[in-house]
Amino acid sequence: MRTPAWRRNITVLGGAFTLLITAAALPAQADAPPSVLTAPLQHAYLANAVIGYRTAGTGTPLVLISGSGQTMAAWDPRMLDQLALTRQVIVFDNRGVGTSTGPVAGLTIAQMARDTAQLIAQVTPNGKADVLGWSMGSYIAQELAINAPTRVRRLVLASADCGGPNTVEPTKAVVAILVDPQATSEQRMSILFPADQMAAAAQWQAAAGEAFAANHYQPENTFTVPATTSAAQSIAAGPGWLDKGRGTCARLGRITQPTLVGLGKQDAVVPSPNHLALMSGIPHATLRMYFDAGHAFLFQPALGFTAEVATFLS
Fold this sequence. Notes:
alpha/beta, 36% helix, 8 strands, single chain
């Protein structure tokens, strides 16, 4: 099966996060409590990349892996800070994104998984962590669990598929938004959240905006996803993941870690039927499906997914 052209040219959602979070930036609160996203920026020096990361909290490390076109500033600080009450939460920028550097020619999901493995080895006390990946980050998390199993204690896959040509594709209407660089914020949010959850979308923007303002982020290194990196990620998460013989579907049995698969029933970007392959292939998988939710279901606090993650990991 040949990968559709839109999969080779997709810009995914990177522009949406820059637009939405900067637009939502609010004045910093002087008495705001410590937050993961306002923690000092640190760097891990890998073999051929420098990875920017932030960390807060104490306890078993939890590493979160961002999706395509995203920097770590796109995470919902409400989610991060709730998790940091009982864990050391670590967020970072993939190579070539935001505060991270490194060559991206020939970039693959496996390369980004190797980067994550090196990061875990350097910045966690025992060289091991729980891992949560969202969207493309879930692809990276799968490769990490398969190829560097000693680095992963437990695994959370959010809005995930296992690649290959049998992956269920989004509709033409969703594709039109995904590939349109001129798509509005409202259009992009419409494929992240169900129509009746726009209030949750606005709350996510506001929370991210507060973190943006409180940390005095500089846009040039916070939200920047260079065109070369965007193109490289599009190939890695497009034909590099979806073409025949690609992805992890045939290797899911090698994920031996306890795994939580979370998804929104109304996910327009990674349609929910894709969870069937994950659940049938991963030996120790638990499913949590949220019905009035979409691709960004983990940023709907009312669903309780963050608490579900904390319970699962404990």
